[in-house]
Design a protein that fits this description.
Chain lengths: 322, 184, 499
């Protein structure tokens, strides 16, 4: 009996000791007390190969160059991102973890029962904005976005959307609210399905990121009517596309891409990552990433990023909040 | 509780019928149609739940009345149907002792032990980590269930875990849960 | 056309490219051997390795990984009844039976041969017909896809040996399990019980590992150790008779696979199931299906390979990925700074044709590598099961974990392992369950889309000629065998009367 208690006590003590060891090992500090990253992980809350994964990997390799630390990408997909963000929640206080974030950070708390919102984490950097283009098949009768709105008012227009909190759903809802019309929606999953639906004539209009649709625009199979952005694109291929605002529809909405750190990290760690992010924004890798994905370069950091999230979250709530 | 094979089979299908009914009720609660008359979130669960319950009840009846359903492929050839039925009989009734001379009772005990050990091993993952916990499972199964000597079992376990660690953790960079020990 | 082909061979047949293709096939096979890692994950995890290479070389290597991983999954399907991906689930039905009869080597060889022939046929069709076929594929909108799903489910349910009711019951159960998670269209949470891991539904890879790998282990323990398979080398090697008798199955499988593969999203799973279902009806050797018929391996294996190639029709001609793996490959295109889309054929001809030819080279390498290796792999079955099964448990549980780096996956395997054992114990088929689970989300999506297109009126399906034709095929699949059987028995009776 006695020996069993002793054994249990030893077990408890050793487990506790191991636990303290491993948590101490998780947060190394450099001799001068500043933050020095080691074995950094960047969580991508979506599957390998998608847009979030691409941006996660771009961030990882760029930060590797600027910080000299080894950065590994961890795909933790599931639940439209909920699984990855919730896992990130469990890394609270760990300055060696980052997450490649996007609009799901704002959409999930508004629509599903999750234990986090953007204030739970430490936003570090917004890389840029990805707006959408309103596109139609080449042989469509529509010439401008105003045509589409007019047709929606009189005969009805079948629009493709990809899910209740997707970027295109938000865009169409904003147009509806602005113009007081209603679209008939057919739900799809992801941009390539919407393109197939447009080419096959099952839907009349779609709203897609430029990078998703550039191939079809260049081949002439699809036409872009307007850009749902504040200003025209600078890219040569897209510069001719007028904005919706020019056509009298006061709508612009972007998806952001960026990265965040867990909540409760030390100020040193936060400052460290902000400095690294600023260095990243100066690099060629950053320009290449933005250009290859036809995004609008619009880097903001830390508190400014938080302000942006607050504003964007309010916009989103006006659309999806019931 | 002892069930005859037929009764156990019927009980399983009956359980599926209950699942079907539950799903149908759940589907009904989610709403089969949206306000605009389009298919809602509950439509498919409701339809499938009803279908599952109906099919499962038919299966229960067929099982209890001993009507072995006929294979449509066999309908075409006809002749082989009996051979097939005979083959099923021999598979369903396992021989009393296997190639290693274990009786059915021994094997039932092994079966329960393996499931129990696996369950315990998975519960231990947060402490030992995934690889160590499953490595311990290999040793436990080989020595306790399969009654092999400890040294070869340890060797097999260490080699298997080593290779898996190398492939998954080192080569593919899978972040393994290392537990409180934090070793591999 | 010929010029393009020559250009393709010139691009692909450099020593460097062939070498990397070989490395890709080899790595892919190893990845595919690990439970849970199929071709999609294989391509995704090995993608970073290719970043340092030239775009053409990288894509050729990725194609090699793709084929290798598919074949690796076939090896585990046959040897330990653990499919690497949904497309090789049906291969386990006869492949594993062949293995238990000492013919694993022949099963592995015929799937390599079948895949190779399917690759040549589909490559020829792809090169000759890609752009027009892409236009055909576009005609298959939500309404038509809804009809195709129904046809697929009908064929699979009716092919199940023994029991129509049980097959249907399991397919419905699979579809029902697929409704867990966020609903398509309305985005509501269903049957998640507040667990965020269930939001995206129950993932089929974990279910497959549980039902097949762990379920089979548990069943074997309960049934007792069989005598170790004492296969003579003669039985391990494929014979000329095996090949000739499988030929019709391979050709039909290639046709079905290619036809379904060009439709975006339908993919190779449905193709392999349908090919097997049809073969079970029309093969001369149909009575042996489910008991180790070599045609039952040849048919789904050629179908899924043909479908995998046909997947590239929408991918290359339209820039729309035809399946999960081609989606990852398209992602790779953008990483290499290539814009996928209809213009790819014109702007990057060397790349496109080089890639197409590399499919061919990949398959040749696969055949060369695996024909001699098949009997060697099959030797694994000589290991006593008592040593083998703990290792199978280890690799499948770790494999499951690596799918999404989540312990939840491991617990799912545990639960579905128990279920898999029960299904075997009660003689319920698990293949229709997996198909239901895989098709479930696509089926519901096309149903919701059809309803949205008809604004609540589902009869829009009767306004599509394509959908009507497909429905007619589904009805024929149910009715025709019964009619034929009736006619035959009547003829037999009249013969008896006459004599």
């Amino acid at each position: 009996m006695k020996s069993r208690i002793t054994a249990a006590a030893i077990a408890v003590v050793s487990v506790a000791a191991l636990a303290s060891c491993s948590s101490a090992a998780g947060q190394p500090t450099s001799p001068d007390g500043g933050f020095q990253p080691s074995d950094v992980r960047i969580v991508v809350p979506f599957a390998a190969g998608g847009g979030s994964d691409t941006s996660g990997r771009a961030i990882a390799s760029a930060l590797e160059d600027t910080t000299g630390a080894t950065i590994t990408v961890e795909n933790r997909e599931g639940g439209s991102g909920a699984v990855g963000y919730s896992y990130f929640l469990s890394q609270e206080g760990n300055g060696n973890y980052l997450l490649a974030s996007e609009t799901a950070l704002l959409a999930l708390p508004l629509t599903t029962e999750v234990d986090f919102d953007y204030t739970t984490f430490t936003p570090i950097m917004k890389l840029g904005d990805d707006y959408t283009l309103m596109v139609v098949p080449a042989d469509s009768e529509f010439e401008t976005c105003t045509d589409v709105v007019d047709a929606a008012r009189s005969d009805g227009v079948v629009a493709a959307v990809s899910g209740a909190v997707s970027l295109d759903e938000v865009v169409f809802t904003l147009i509806e609210q602005d113009q007081d019309v209603e679209f008939d929606r057919v739900p799809f999953e992801g941009g390539s399905e919407v393109i197939a639906g447009l080419l096959g004539g099952q839907v009349e209009v779609g709203s897609l990121n430029p990078s998703e649709v550039l191939g079809q625009l260049e081949s002439g199979d699809l036409r872009a009517l307007c850009a749902l952005s504040d200003e025209r694109y600078q890219y040569e291929e897209l510069a001719d596309i007028p904005t919706a605002i020019e056509q009298g529809i006061d709508v612009s909405f972007a998806q952001f891409r960026g990265f965040i750190a867990p909540g409760g990290i030390t100020d040193e760690a936060r400052e460290y990552w902000i400095a690294a992010a600023k260095e990243f924004a100066e690099s060629d890798a950053y320009t290449t990433y933005i250009e290859e994905n036809l995004m609008q370069a619009n880097a903001v950091y830390a508190d400014e990023f938080v302000d942006y999230l607050e504003q964007n979250s309010a916009d989103l709530e006006a659309v999806v909040g019931k | 509780m002892k069930l005859s094979p037929v009764a156990a089979k019927a009980a399983f299908s009956a359980a599926l019928a209950v699942v079907g009914v539950a799903a149908a009720i759940g589907g009904w609660a989610y709403g089969a149609l949206q306000e605009n008359g389009q298919i809602g979130a509950g439509f498919l669960p409701m339809v499938l739940g009803v279908a599952l319950a109906a099919l499962a009840i038919v299966d229960v009846v067929q099982t209890l009345t001993g009507r072995e359903p006929v294979d449509p492929a066999e309908e075409l050839t006809g002749v082989e149907a009996e051979a097939e039925a005979a083959a099923i009989d021999t598979v369903a009734e396992a021989p009393d002792t296997d190639a290693l001379g274990r009786t059915q009772r021994q094997r039932n005990r092994m079966f329960v032990m393996v499931i129990g050990m696996l369950f315990v091993a998975l519960l231990l993952v947060p402490v030992l980590g995934l690889l160590l916990s499953l490595g311990a499972l290999i040793v436990a199964i080989s020595t306790i269930v399969e009654r092999r000597r400890i040294l070869p079992s340890l060797l097999v376990s260490v080699i298997a875990v080593g290779i898996i660690h190398l492939v998954f953790a080192v080569l593919l960079g899978v972040p393994m849960p290392t537990g409180l020990i934090g070793f591999i | 056309m010929i010029d393009n082909l020559i250009l393709g061979f010139q691009t692909a047949l450099t020593l460097e490219n062939v070498l990397w293709c070989f490395v890709g096939v080899l790595l892919g096979t190893v990845i595919g051997l690990l439970p849970g890692l199929g071709s999609t994950t294989g391509v995704a995890v090995l993608l970073p390795i290719t970043f340092t290479l030239e775009p053409v070389t990288a894509l050729i290597m990725l194609a090699g990984i793709y084929y290798g991983a598919q074949y690796g999954g076939t090896i585990t399907s046959v040897l330990i009844s653990t499919p690497g991906e949904a497309a090789s689930v049906v291969t386990t039905l006869d492949g594993y039976q062949m293995a238990t009869r000492g013919r694993a080597g022949a099963a592995l060889a015929i799937s390599a041969i079948g895949s190779f022939i399917a690759a040549i046929i589909s490559l020829a069709l792809l090169i000759a017909l890609a752009p027009p076929l892409a236009d055909v594929a576009l005609q298959f909108g939500p309404v038509e896809m809804f009809a195709i799903m129904i046809l697929g489910l009908v064929i699979v349910v009716t092919f199940q040996g023994g029991a129509f009711v049980r097959g249907a019951m399991m397919a419905v159960a699979g579809l029902l399990v697929a409704t867990v998670g966020i609903s398509p269209g309305t985005s509501e949470e269903r049957f998640t019980f507040g667990n965020i891991n269930l939001l995206s539904g129950i993932p089929f890879v974990e279910v497959m590992i549980g039902l097949f790998a762990l379920g089979e282990v548990l069943y074997q323990i309960r049934m007792g150790a069989a005598k170790p398979i004492r296969a003579r080398f003669k039985d391990m090697v494929i014979t000329r008779k095996d090949v000739t008798s499988s030929m019709p199955a391979i050709l039909r499988g290639s046709g079905i696979g290619f036809g379904l593969g060009i439709l975006p999203g339908a993919g190779s799973t449905l193709a392999s199931f349908m090919a097997y279902g049809i073969e079970r009806r029309v093969s001369r050797n149909r009575a042996q299906f489910g008991k180790g018929a070599i045609e039952g391996v040849a048919s789904p294996e050629s179908a899924n390979n043909a479908a995998a190639n046909a997947n590239f029709v929408p991918t290359l001609a339209l820039g729309i990925p035809g399946g999960a793996t081609t989606a990852v490959l398209l992602g790779a295109f953008t990483i290499f700074g290539l814009q996928p889309g209809p213009l790819l054929f014109e702007t990057q001809p060397d790349l496109v044709w080089g890639l197409l030819v590399s499919f061919f080279i990949g398959n040749v390498l696969l055949l060369v590598l695996n024909l001699p290796l098949a009997p060697v792999f099959a030797q694994m079955l000589r290991i006593p099961y008592g040593y083998l099964y703990p290792i199978i448990m280890l690799t499948s549980l770790v494999g499951a974990y690596s799918v999404s780096n989540n312990m939840f996956s491991v617990w799912l395997v545990f639960v579905f392992g128990l279920l898999g054992y029960l299904l075997k114990e009660f003689d319920l088929p698990s293949a229709p369950f997996v198909l239901g689970l895989v098709l479930g989300p696509l089926f519901e999506k096309s149903l919701v889309q059809t309803s949205a297109i008809g604004q609540g009126d589902l009869t829009v399906v009767f306004r599509s000629p394509i959908a009507l034709t497909v429905f007619a095929l589904a009805v024929a699949a149910v009715v025709l065998p019964k009619v034929v059987a009736m006619l035959r028995s009547r003829r037999r009776r009249t013969k008896v009367d006459a004599s």
